[in-house]
Amino acid sequence: MAQLEVDLVDTDGTIWSGEARQVSAPASDGEIGILAGHTPVLSVLRHGEVRVIEAGGAVHRWSVEGGFLSVDGDQVTVVVDAAEAVAAGTSGR
């Protein structure tokens, strides 16, 4: 199965980097989901939750305060103004 190479960064540096099967983010006009093979896209992000699902099923979640998401090939770069990890079982809000 094809994988995404994901980098989540803020002004302090890298928050998370690795391979994933899916990325979801709060685009300015609604939730955007990215899978391997997605067409290139550049999207502004609003306040909300970024979710990264690894191939093994582990889910990583962060509450973010805006930024942007770029997809080129299977490389996903998420640049956020601020991010805070969300504990499992919470809504992130």
From TrEMBL:
It is a peripheral membrane protein. It is found in: Cell membrane. Its main location: membrane. One of its GO terms (molecular function) is hydrolase activity. Pfam families: ATP-synt_DE_N (PF02823). The keyword Cell membrane applies. Keywords: ATP synthesis, Cell membrane, CF(1), Hydrogen ion transport, Hydrolase, Ion transport, Membrane, Transport. One of its GO terms (cellular component) is proton-transporting ATP synthase complex. Residues 4-83 form the ATP synthase F1 complex delta/epsilon subunit N-terminal domain. The keyword Amino-acid biosynthesis does not apply. F-type ATPases have 2 components, CF(1) - the catalytic core - and CF(0) - the membrane proton channel. CF(1) has five subunits: alpha(3), beta(3), gamma(1), delta(1), epsilon(1). CF(0) has three main subunits: a, b and c. Belongs to the ATPase epsilon chain family. This is ATP synthase epsilon chain. It comes from Cellulomonas triticagri.
